[in-house]
Amino acid sequence: MNLKQLSELLGLSQTTVSRALNGYPEVNEATRERVLQAVKETGYRPNKAAQRLATGKAGSIGLVMPTAPDHYSDVHFGEFLTGLGEEAVRHDFHFVIMPADPNDEVGALRRLAISGNVDALFVAYMRGHDPRLPMLKSLSMPFLVHGRSFGSEPDYPYLDIDNEAAFYDAARLLLQLGHTRFALLNGPGHLDFAIRRKNGLVAALSERGLSLPEDCMSHTSMTDELGQSAMERFLQMPEPPTAILCSSTVLALGAIRAVNQAGLKLGEDISLIAHDDVLPHLKPENFSVPLTTTRSSLRAAGVRIAQRLIGTVKQDGPFPEQELWKTELIVRASTGPVPRQAQNVGGV
Fold first, then answer.
1. Which residue of 65, 127, 130, 204 shows the fewest CB atoms closer than 10 Å?
2. Does residue 348 surpass a pLDDT of 80?
3. CA angle centred on 157, ends 151 and 160, rounded to 5°
4. Torsional sign, CA 43, 48, 54, 59
5. Minimal CA–CA distance to 81: which of 161, 160, 146?
6. Residue 272, helix vs strand vs coil
7. Which candidate, 278, 322, 273, 325, places its Cα nearest to that of 298?
8. For residue 47, what pLDDT is reported?
9. Which helix (H) or strand (E) element contains residue 20?
10. For the segment 240-265, what is each residue's pLDDT rounded down to a tens digit?
11. In what order do the strands lie in the sheet with 322-325?
């Protein structure tokens, strides 16, 4: 069914039907509901090209995807996109994904913005002093940031979790259990979430007069292989750490493999807390020793960001400019008291 047929069925002009579908305020609510009911019953789908001509809107969210031969794909971003897509489907919005060299993201975002193919932009993997922000703020196009940019003035729309508080609270739990020798398995060191998680851990340690030496930190892409190799290095230290914080359950998967291969028992010889993005195929409660985690759903974040972007484009607001979500600390069996043999050894 096309627009003309739908309008004839309803006894309304094509202009009225089009305006009802696109949220124009001059169409009364009863007419809008009647049109939407007919759309549901007939399965009518608006022609995107015609809709764009009529409204000046593309019905699309744009994002740049860095890609290169040595660039890791990321299961975390896939889960986030699932949430973003889940909400976009509800509003018949599309994604326009522009692949780009990781060194040309600013240029790629600018080209995408002026292409006319998108109504709003989304950016992720925020860095300290992120160079994309000044360009985004110069555009007359809505945008939304997942995360924040450490060291930059927070004068832009974002949704983030309180990464610093998450790892501060996790470290406090381990300190209360008597641990003093800590190590951190973190994401890439230039990314905002990794900076803030490290700061949260360091802040908790400093309250007890402890520090985190450089050789007790690992900043890598978040894969299980890199988690395993970093953990193997920690375990080979003269006084290995007894408390580990991991920025992902994926890193934790490799770290625990190293712990098991060393003949150690998780939750007894060594305690571990991981950040849980609620990945459906890597549930912390299903590990052989259930993981203590800081938890916040990436999928839920994707849904919320889509709600805000699409709502802004459709002028359905108002929406908050900035949101900072608290994580949930869930205690399971991977954390326990400091081992007796480590109790009388000086801390780091």
1. 65
2. no
3. 70
4. positive
5. 146
6. strand
7. 278
8. 60
9. helix 14-21
10. 999 999 999 999 999 999 999 999 99
11. 94-100, 60-66, 120-123, 143-146, 158-161, 322-325
* DSSP designation for 148: -
Are 121 and 252 within one domain? no
Question: Within a domain: residue 17?
Answer: no
Domain count, the chain: 2
Contact assessment for residue 346 and residue 213, using Cβ atoms and an 8 Å cutoff? no
- Are the C-beta atoms of residues 42 and 9 closer than 8 Å to each other? yes
DSSP conformation class of 341: G
Cα 162 from Cα 281, distance rounded (Å): 24
- In this prediction, residue 52 has a pLDDT band, given cuts at 50, 70 and 90, of low
Kindly indicate the confidence band of residue 158, based on its pLDDT and cuts at 50, 70 and 90: very high
Q: What is the pLDDT of residues 187-197, one digit of tens each?
A: 999 999 999 99
- Beta carbons within 8 Å of 317's beta carbon, 6+ residues apart: 311
What is the per-residue burial (b if ≥16 Cβ within 10 Å, else e) of 233-246?
ebbeeeebbbbbbb
Structure tokens at 115: 């292409």
Report which DSSP code applies to 102: G
Structural domain for 278, as ranges: 163-297+329-342
Is a pLDDT exceeding 90 seen at residue 133?
Answer: yes
Joined tokens for residue 93: 């919005």
pTM, full prediction:
0.83
Q: Parallel, antiparallel, or unpaired for β 120-123 and 60-66?
A: parallel
Amino acid at 307: Q
* pLDDT for position 20: 82
CATH number of the domain where residue 317 is located = 3.40.50.2300
